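Appendix C reproduces, verbatim, an entry submitted by the partner laboratory led by Prof. M.T., so that reviewers can inspect both the input and the predicted structure.
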Amino acid sequence: MDRRRGTRYNVNALILCGLVFFVIVATIFCMVANGREAAREERRIAAEQQAAAEQEAAEKKAQEEAEAAAEARKKSDSLQPGVPVGTTEASDDEKVVYLTFDDGPSKNTQKVLDILEEYDAKATFFITGQQPEYFPMIKTVYDAGHTIGLHSYVHDYNKVYASVDAYFEDLEKIGNLAKEYIGFVPCYIRFPGGASNTVSKKYTPGIMSELTEKVVEKGYQYYDWNVSSGDGEDATKDEIIKQSETDAYNHIMILFHDAATKDTTVEALPDILKYYQDKGYEFRGIDRNSLIFHHQTNN
């Protein structure tokens, strides 16, 4: 009887020891597992933190680069007396079209921008001060990556060409308008009527010969064109297309207008862009290194 009781005690003791051992092993296993899980969680958190830090650093770098590029663009396009603008040497292995639009901004400017975006084309807008309600479009045009140039504030020949001083007063006014919206005075200009106009002779004989020299001395560069769309007059869509399309040059600067009355220009533009795109031309806005297009001065 005592032997059976002793045996039972021994068995119970063994069971208890086994249970204790199991608990200890299970506890150790859980601790190890928990430790591994905690380590994995720490590594995951560390990886996420590192990824977030790297993303933040990349975004900061991208922002800094974008800001630097924006400042470089602004400086390059701005009026800097004494710094040359433009080149007279064209690269023969390039095919470039400079689309230029005078007399805006107007109700047609956004329509032109939409078409340019569709064809991934950049252009230059020589602005005026004729429609104040559309002045905010100046910034819209610039922010879309196009070039802002100066045309005339009043675009009234008898006022603009009344004298050399009158011309520069008008140029300063349109320059200040541009500065109000894009933060600087552009160095690119286009004379009303172009440098070859003769109507100025009616108001001040010889004024164009003087102005073409003086604007360059002051840090501007003026741009005429070697292809005219003919939309300065009452041209139809088909007439504008016909007069705008040519493959006679590798470097082409086309005169268009984005004034409120130029609906046919808007209608013709997609056909013209497709024509040059199919012929392998690139569409660029004027920049400080662009080819200069000058007419012969006739006054």
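The chain has a mean pLDDT of 92. Additional entries are available on request from the coordinating office.
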